[in-house]
Amino acid sequence: MAERERLLAALKRILKERGWRYADLAAALGLSEPTIKRMLSNGRIGLDRLEQICEALDIDFFELARSARGNRDARRHLSLAQETALAAEPRLMTVFHLLCQGWQTAAIGADYGLRKPELVKLLARLDALRLIELLPGDRTRLRVARDFSWRDDGPVRARYFQLASREFLNHGFDGGDAFFALEIRELSEASAATLRRKLDKLVAEFKEAADLDIGLPPERRRSVGMLAASRPWVFSLVESLREAEPAADKPRRR
Length: 254
Description:
- By secondary structure, the chain is mostly helical.
- The chain folds into 3 domains: 3-70, 434 Repressor (Amino-terminal Domain); 77-170, Arc Repressor Mutant, subunit A; 172-254, no CATH class.
- The chain is built from 12 helices and 2 strands; from the N terminus they run αααααααααββααα.
- Strands 1-2 form a two-stranded antiparallel sheet.
- Strand 1 and strand 2 (140-142) form a beta hairpin.
- Helix 2 packs across helix 3 and helix 7 packs across helix 9 (116-128).
- The longest helix is centred in the last third of the chain and has 25 residues, at 189-213.
- The mean pLDDT is 85.
- It comes from Lysobacter enzymogenes.
């Protein structure tokens, strides 16, 4: 991640920690909310504007830089016990996923046909796992960061990721809102490392777009899947060339 992107990520984190909305920052700077959203999504912020933002938040630039450096390589995970519980109970996993996407409990019950006793039971289970805080009126507050990552060798990946990947790829990708591309090329280690950084950036931008839209009501959003993958790989069709023995060289069977 480039230094500018780290600063932006740290700035968004500070805004979230202080409970500032984009509208609050826009009002403090005398700008429109769409302008703030564009600045924080495309990263086109000059030094003067960045200093104004820091002043509005009552921090100095060096504090922002330290925050960016301190979280450079941090990956937030749920505890192993939390992941294990979610992996064991698909309905619990689904409700937690929807809450992380900004759904309200009433909307989950209505849209997915969950009766209130069952929904409350699932919410209480998530509360006991310290994944959410169950508030009066069945409202909830997340107790974990929205940008957490599943453990690479954890129980959620072990149970769901292979299934989800197969289901995701079992599609024609022929709609106007679908995109699929498979390219096989030979790259140097340096080019492969550059590609990995760009994929990391794309995933980060995907998550940031979701964060920007999380305040919209569910009917104005739709679930979108993005699978980003790259690994050393030789297609079996190509590898079969090594196994094909020319007919003239084959020993005669007696």
